[in-house]
Every structure is written in structure tokens, then in C-alpha cells.
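Lab manual, section 2.4: Encoding a predicted structure.

Procedure: take the sequence of the chain (193 residues), apply the prediction step described in section 2.3, and record the output as C-alpha cells. A sample record is shown.
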Amino acid sequence: MFDRHQDLKTIRRCKRGEEDAFREILERYRGPIYNLCYRMSRNPEDARDLGQEVFIKVFSLLDRFDEEYAFSSWLFRIATNHCIDHLRRNRLRFLSLDGTVGQDGQEYEFQIPSELPGPDQVLQRKEALEKLEEVIAELPPHYKAITLLRHDQQLSYEEIADVLGLPLGTVKARIHRARNLVQQMLKARAYDI
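Recorded output:
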């Protein structure tokens, strides 16, 4: 997805203090990092702040970057860990799988629309994606991070292992557990996705 050789050339320029190189890295990765931060925090303001903090941290630690590894993996590892730390600091509450109570404490009921042809099918798909995103947003941070890296950022298992500093088997197991947890949560809410 990202050009490792191009990144390496740009990083070397950054290490020499070339401002254009910093700008290139920021432009290349601003969107994906914001997207990851948003999907982790579910708050646009937090995502902007987290993204900015990630880039400040990355640029301050650039001399520690090991050129044997992909810069994108290193960057996503820092971003993921930063978001997880943010979530832990803010002590996000996770909904019970047994209840139908929203985060605001109000009870809610979901009505699944019937399958209709044409534009209604588009609407159904959008609603299903919203429900899926809602469930993913409520996953514990380590499952949320691994799910977003795999399905949102479309990283391979190997890239995720690099990003998170985990063995490949652990990555596969966590993705499997995260998928099972999502299915359980969807089923518990009677979501038909």
C-alpha cells in the first residue's frame, strides 16, 4: 500500500532537516492516520488531536527509526499505541453484550428494514455498515486496533504483526477472536448483517 523505498528516501531527507520532506510524510500519511485515530476514538476533535500528537511524536523520534523496517509499520504502531493509551486514559465504557442499553443509558430498539430492490438496498447496506461500525467502536482497544488495521487500513497479517510488535500467530488469533466478538455483539443486538 505504501512505497517503502520512497518512504526511506523521504525519511533520510527528514533526518537531514529538510522541511519539504516533513511535509511529504505528513501529506502521505495524514489521511490514513486521521482515519485510524477517528475510528479508534469515534470523535473528530479527538482524532485531529491524536493525529497531530502522533506526528509530533513520530518526528521527535525519527532518529530512532530503524531503516530495516517499513516506516508505515513503525508509524501505525506509534499511532495505534497512542490511541489505545488515549482510550485507556479516558476509561471508555463498553456495553454489555446482554443488554439493549445505549451509551447514554437509554433503552433502544432496532428495526431491521426489509430487503427491497434499488435505492433501498443501498440504504440497507449503509445502515448495516453503520451498525457494524457501531459494534467495532465498542470493541476493547486491542481488538478494535487490530480490526481497523486489517479491514480499514487493509494491512496484511504480517504488516499488522510489524505495526503492533506481535507474533504473527497472535495477530491471527486476535483477528479471529475480534470477528467472533463482533458476531456475538451483532447477534446479541438482533442485528441481521
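Check your result against the sample. The chain is about 70% helix and 0% strand.
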